């Protein structure tokens, strides 16, 4: 009969207890080692901090504030933090750029634990002064829009970044000085805007080159200099092409969608390069895919399909009326109805109907163009350039624009000043292949001189009024030269003196403009 051995049965139990005891000893040893390590770390950091190591003061302050391996002591943490940051502050003010960058970063990251109002900004401004362009731009972005004092400081930081060679900073300053509608601590100053935009161009900004070229072309900030404008446009094209083909290399650069849009405009108008409608469309496609709403609109994408685009509501009238007028031979109504169907505006979206209406518009414009109507030729070019059934007739568009220019040239030579004006604008906006800015300005100056003579000494009061009105309108809403409300008001007043009857449009415009000029 089998008999159990009590001693043998007790061995597994003793083994389990032994293993458990060993585990407790190992755990205790590990915990002791951790405590010893944390104690030694704290002891060493304390020692190095007393000897002047600001990094150890700061590191120990953070550990005491968070309770990382030590008992939390916020009061002691505050003292050590003040010692460490004071040392960094001193080095920064003494010209140590790395101390400025480190201090500004720490002050901003730990502001919730160790509030020191103004310290991060002071260190960042000093880093900017010592040549850190990214710090200048980052701090300017944080300050802008918070109030007048902050806007002025942001402007100063961007000016410093521009001095250090930052192209985006120079571009931003140029736009502030050029466009009054942008909230800015400075007044519009076209000559200064031109200088900053040229600086941006010299530092590799394609948009800076393009905008500076436009200012020289229009005579903003000085005399018209066509050759200089052409040179700047030529420099803009490869720079914008590089920006369009790849994402911006820095967060303050021109967004890819915007770079592609500007590049497309230059190629469409033949500025700095030959007119190339296909490559213009390619650039806009890249820009639209990158989220550029302007590129999408230039490409002809229905506005309601562009994410983030805010559109004003407007009444286009019943689409059925436009379709009926199109059937009766009104080409412009065909275009309006086609746009409505393409965008689903007032009617269900219908691409096939939009294509049918655009083809009808093209045929009507072509018939009128062949009869010698230059406006119809220009409109035909615009229709052919748009997408119909997935295709664009770019060669046909160019031919239509050239036919319009030829017709207008003949009419201009025979003394039709309206056609001279329209032809000048075709040269200036690039609808004539082989854009000739000099020819455009020559024609426009002839038109201005003609209307000036009519306004000053025209024999017929109606012609005098028309001359003054044209000059006033061109100065107020010019698209080819700088806007000048003072000159516009002067001619509106002269036109007003010649007006009779109830419809005194010049007088009303003068009254409205007087408020702006004041």
What does this structure look like?
Helix content is about 70%, strand content about 0%. The chain is elongated, with a radius of gyration of 36 Å. Among the domains are: about 25-130, no CATH class; about 160-305, Alpha Horseshoe (Serine Threonine Protein Phosphatase 5, Tetratricopeptide repeat); about 425-518, no CATH class. It is built from 24 helices and no strands. It is an all-alpha fold.
Q: What's the CATH H-level homologous superfamily of the domain at 161-304? A: Tetratricopeptide repeat domain
The number of helices is: 24
* Residues in helices, as a percent range: over 70%
Q: Average pLDDT, to the nearest integer?
A: 82
Strand fraction = under 5%
The third-level CATH topology of the domain at 161-304 is Serine Threonine Protein Phosphatase 5, Tetratricopeptide repeat
Number of strands: 0
Taken in chain order, the helices and strands follow as HHHHHHHHHHHHHHHHHHHHHHHH
Distance between the termini: 124 Å
**What shape does the CA trace take?**
elongated
Q: Main sheet, how many strands, which sense, barrel? A: none
Please give the CATH architecture of the domain at 161-304.
Answer: Alpha Horseshoe
Q: In angstroms, what is the radius of gyration?
A: 36 Å
The level 1 CATH classification of the domain at 161-304 is: Mainly Alpha
Give start-end ranges of low-pLDDT stretches: 31-36, 310-316
Which structural class fits the helix and strand makeup? mainly alpha
């Amino acid at each position: 009969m089998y008999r159990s051995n009590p001693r043998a049965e007790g061995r597994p139990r003793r083994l389990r207890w032994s293993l458990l005891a060993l585990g407790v000893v190992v755990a205790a040893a590990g915990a002791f080692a951790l405590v010893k390590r944390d104690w030694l770390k704290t002891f060493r950091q304390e020692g190095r901090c007393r000897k002047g190591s600001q990094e150890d003061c700061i590191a120990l302050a953070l550990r005491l504030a968070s309770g990382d391996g030590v008992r939390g002591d916020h009061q002691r943490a505050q003292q050590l933090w003040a010692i460490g940051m004071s040392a960094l502050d001193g080095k920064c003010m003494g010209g140590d750029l790395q101390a400025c960058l480190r201090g500004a970063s720490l002050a901003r990251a730990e502001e919730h634990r160790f509030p020191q109002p103004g310290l991060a900004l002071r260190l960042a401004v000093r880093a900017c002064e010592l040549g850190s362009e990214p710090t200048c731009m980052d701090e300017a972005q944080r300050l802008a829009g918070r109030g007048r004092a902050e806007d002025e400081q942001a402007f100063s930081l961007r000016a410093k970044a521009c001095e250090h060679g930052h192209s985006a900073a120079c571009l931003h300053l140029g736009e502030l000085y050029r466009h009054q509608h942008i909230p800015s601590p400075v007044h519009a100053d076209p000559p200064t805007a031109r200088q900053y935009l040229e600086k941006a161009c010299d530092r590799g900004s394609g948009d800076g080159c393009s905008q500076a070229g436009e200012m020289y072309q229009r005579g903003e900030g000085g005399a018209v200099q066509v050759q200089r404008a052409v040179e700047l446009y030529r420099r803009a094209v490869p720079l914008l092409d590089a920006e369009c083909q790849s994402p911006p290399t820095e967060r303050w650069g021109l967004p890819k969608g915007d770079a592609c849009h500007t590049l497309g405009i230059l190629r469409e108008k033949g500025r700095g390069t030959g007119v190339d409608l296909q490559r213009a469309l390619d650039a806009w496609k890249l820009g639209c895919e990158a989220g550029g709403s302007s590129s999408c609109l230039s490409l002809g994408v229905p506005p309601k399909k562009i994410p983030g685009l805010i559109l004003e509501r407007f009444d286009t009238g019943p689409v059925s009326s436009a379709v009926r007028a199109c059937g009766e031979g009104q080409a412009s109504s065909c275009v309006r109805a086609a746009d409505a169907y393409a965008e689903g505006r007032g009617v269900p979206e219908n691409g096939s109907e939009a294509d049918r209406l655009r083809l009808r518009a093209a045929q009507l414009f072509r018939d009128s163009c062949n009869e010698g109507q230059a406006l119809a030729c220009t409109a035909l070019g615009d229709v052919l350039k748009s997408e119909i059934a997935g295709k664009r007739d770019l060669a046909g568009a160019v031919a239509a624009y050239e036919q319009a220019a030829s017709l207008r040239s003949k009419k201009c030579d025979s003394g039709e000043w309206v056609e001279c004006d329209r032809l000048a604008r075709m040269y200036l906006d690039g609808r004539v292949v082989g854009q000739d800015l000099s020819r455009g300005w020559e024609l426009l100056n002839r038109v201005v001189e003609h209307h000036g003579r009519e306004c000053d000494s025209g024999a017929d009061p109606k012609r005098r009024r028309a001359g003054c009105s044209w000059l006033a309108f061109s100065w107020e809403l010019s698209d080819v030269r700088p806007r000048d409300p003072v000159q516009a008001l002067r001619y509106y007043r002269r036109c007003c003196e010649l007006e009779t009857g109830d419809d005194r449009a010049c007088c009303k415009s003068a009254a409205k403009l007087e408020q702006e000029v004041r």
